[in-house]
Amino acid sequence: MHEDVIACADLVRRGDPDRFRAVMAAPVAAREVLFPVYAFNLEVSRAPWVTEEPMIAEMRLQWWRDALGEIRDGGPVRRHEVATPLSGVVDAKGTELLDQLVAARRWDVYREPFEDMAHFREYIGKTSSNLLLAAARSLADVPEDTVQDTVREAGYALGLANWLRAVPALEKAGRIPLVEGTHQAIRALAEEGLDHLASARAARRTVPGAARPAMLVVWEAGPVLKAARDRPGRVGDGTLDTAPFRSRLTLMARAATGLW
């Protein structure tokens, strides 16, 4: 791998171990493409949290929007261990998806709650569905039809699962992560995620074979969402994670069969 890709892989390994494991289960050629995309996501997701000053956080996010603009325009791209390799793996449509992701991350800068469920769903869609679709597109042409819908649905389910896992940390940081935090509302949210996941998996064979390694990141979404549905109290307790041994076996099986 190029040294920039190795740097991206190390960033993901330290900051996003679940995605790191999923990428390492993919073919080597796919890893070289996926690591810059996921390193970008890590850097952007961190930006609002490294400072207490909203203006500085906004500037950090704008830096990434400017870098994406350079990639989209096809001109010189600023030298950076993530932006540089990212420029080699995403096209104009990919930069558009990632730009929407950065814009949605502005919610993380402030402490206001989501306006309503529509706002919450839009946030999950732009931060998780957009990321998965950009990752899949970086590996292969993904037709703008039901195939993209399939990827988006899988990304939405993954986003809900990861968000529910993050609830205790977000609350500790002074955020209000859920529109409604009752057990009934959490159960309904988990069911919604499971419905999206089931719909995506029913159509998973429509996803081009070359793009399927990007879908391995979805491997833990089902168990996490089922745990939240069956025992909503585990969301507040921060105990939604799957046992490590079972998690590894599930990922190995998904990678071996291609049935993400």
The dominant shape is globular
Distance between the termini: 25 Å
Radius of gyration: 17 Å
CATH class of the largest domain: Mainly Alpha
What's the architecture of the largest domain in CATH terms?
Orthogonal Bundle
Could you state the oligomeric state of the chains shown?
A: single chain
Number of domains: 2
Give the number of helices.
12
CATH topology of the largest domain: Farnesyl Diphosphate Synthase
Number of strands: 0
State the order of secondary-structure elements, H for helix, E for strand.
HHHHHHHHHHHH
User: At the fourth CATH level, what is the homologous superfamily of the largest domain?
Assistant: Farnesyl Diphosphate Synthase
Structural class, by secondary structure, is: mainly alpha
* Overall average pLDDT: 96
The amount of helix comes to: 55-70%
Largest sheet: none
Detailed description of the structure:
This protein has 260 residues and is mostly helical. The chain folds into two domains: 1-109, no CATH class; 111-260, Farnesyl Diphosphate Synthase (Orthogonal Bundle), CATH 1.10.600. 68% of the residues lie in helices and 0% in strands. The chain contains twelve helices and no strands. The chain has helices at residues 3-15, 17-24, 28-46, 54-73, 83-87, 92-104, 117-139, 146-172, 183-202, 221-230, 233-237, 244-257.
